[in-house]
Write a structure and sequence with these properties.
Elements lengths: L16 H14 L13 E4 L12 H19 L3 E4 L11
Parallel strand pairs: 1-2
Length: about 100
Amino acid sequence: MTDTAFSIDTIPKSYAPSEVEAGIISKWDKANLGHSSADTAGKPFTILIPPPNVTAPLHLGHALNNTLQDVLIRWHRMTGHATLWMPGTDHAGIAT
């Protein structure tokens, strides 16, 4: 996070996102962490329309499903695959 040491007396009483996140985003930008490319050198791995679609009130199973997809895509990207994860909405506009 930051290189500053904190004590209980120096922790702010409220969270100020613009103060904290600006430094983090700057470090991410310098490290080019948000960059992706259409390089097709690796074997393709895609998740296009991940089942199951939302057909009931959202619950923790939906969060688990999205977390597993995220882990799979990141792992395949780190192992050299050309990855594509296309989250979005279904035909009725329900987030999937």
